[in-house]
Design goal:
Layout: H1 3-16, H2 34-48, H3 52-59, H4 63-71, H5 80-92, E1 100-102, E2 107-108, H6 112-115, H7 123-130, E3 135-137, E4 140-144, E5 149-154, H8 163-172, E6 178-182, H9 191-198, E7 206-211, E8 226-230, E9 242-246, H10 253-262, E10 267-271, E11 279-285, E12 291-301, E13 315-316, H11 321-325, H12 330-340
Parallel strand pairs: 5-6, 6-9, 9-10, 10-13
Antiparallel strand pairs: 1-2, 1-12, 3-4, 4-5, 7-8, 7-12, 11-12
Helix pairs in contact: 2-4, 9-10
């Protein structure tokens, strides 16, 4: 792929990477019938989805076998509701939170990447720690805890943050011994916010990962891996230890933030394995007008490993029932002890 086209894809990736991001691909025409819609959906995934071979290796996904499994469930007398159920089930074989089928009546999704796991987060505990005297800087909620540890909660990377917001937060916490950044339950958003925040924690250009682009319809038709770097911010930067709190609901752009931060020497990831979501989502449509979204551009960490199925923490910590009964968030308390050392 030439450099100009590669740059265009990177710009699209930067602007659109979120749970709701979309782009479009053109497809050949299929009849608007149950069989035609199944054929169209299967081929869209077969030619454009970016993790077919990876997931065959990881858990034995066979996309041809998936076609044979679901084509027998389709007949010309079925209703739209029945067809939607079949097609949604077929897409769930991909085990990808970025893969959806949208209609006016429903939204097919795969959320087992977090629904099948403990939340390791309690909104009631969060409110107990924050009280009513916390500060808000756009999407950042922050407070200095009583042991002089700074705490920042970022609920969604869809919530915009400006450089001035981050400056105010870091200056307010300048005398703190360390900083906790809590991104639990953060399902993603805008990658520009990821880079804007992560750039405050490095003093040098850092390799944080790689990206590829689809160059053809074959399962292995990709460009060479292109490096992705994090540049240090020209604004206020943080030079003390940082702990990032994660749980299984950390996905998409939030997963990228955890990946970026894990490359930095003063940062530790504490909590649960993240949910993943390492493919930029594009969209297409079926003959009946239903919209299908799918991962089309794969991303990798600095070791060229896929983070589609998430990122392991440096310290695996789960919420304890006995701590909850005492009004304590196990992950926050672990982070405070780690930073106090």
């Amino acid at each position: 792929m030439n450099k100009g086209l590669s740059s265009l894809f990177f710009i699209l990736y930067t602007l659109l990477f979120s749970v709701s991001a979309t782009s479009c691909v053109d497809e050949e025409q299929y009849p608007d019938s149950p069989q035609g819609n199944l054929e169209a959906l299967w081929k869209i995934i077969d030619e454009h989805y970016c993790f077919l071979d990876y997931k065959q290796h990881e858990y034995g996904l066979d996309w041809n076998a998936v076609y044979n499994k679901y084509k027998v469930r389709v007949n010309e007398q079925m209703t739209d509701l029945q067809l939607f159920e079949v097609l949604g089930d077929m897409l769930s074989e991909l085990r990808d939170g970025h893969v959806n089928l949208s209609t006016s009546h429903d939204f097919a999704r795969y959320w087992a990447w977090y629904e099948a796991y403990p939340t390791n987060y309690s909104d009631s505990l969060y409110r107990s720690y924050m009280g009513t005297d916390y500060k808000i800087a756009s999407g950042l909620y922050y407070k200095i805890l009583d042991d002089n540890i700074g705490y920042v909660r970022y609920k969604s990377f869809s919530s915009s943050i400006g450089n001035g917001n981050i400056d105010e937060v870091l200056l307010h916490m300048a005398l703190c011994r360390g900083l906790i950044i809590d991104i639990r339950e953060n399902g993603g958003g805008d990658l520009t916010n990821v880079e804007k925040l992560a750039s405050r924690f490095t003093n040098e250009k850092v390799l944080v990962g790689y990206i590829q682009h689809k160059t053809g319809t074959g399962h292995n038709d990709f460009s060479d891996m292109e490096p992705r770097y994090l540049e240090p911010s020209a604004n206020v930067r943080w030079h003390k230890p940082v702990v990032v709190l994660t749980n299984r609901h950390v996905f998409s752009a939030a997963n990228e933030f955890a990946m970026y931060m894990k490359t930095l020497p003063m940062v530790k990831i504490v909590g649960d394995h993240t949910g993943g979501g390492a493919g930029m989502p594009f969209t297409s449509s079926l003959p009946n007008g239903w919209a299908v979204r799918f991962s089309a551009v794969p991303m990798y960490d600095a070791n060229k490993q896929s983070t589609e199925f998430g990122i392991a923490p440096d310290y695996f910590v789960q919420q304890k029932d006995e701590d909850f009964l005492r009004g304590k968030d196990t992950l926050i308390e672990f982070a405070r002890q780690l930073l106090s050392k």
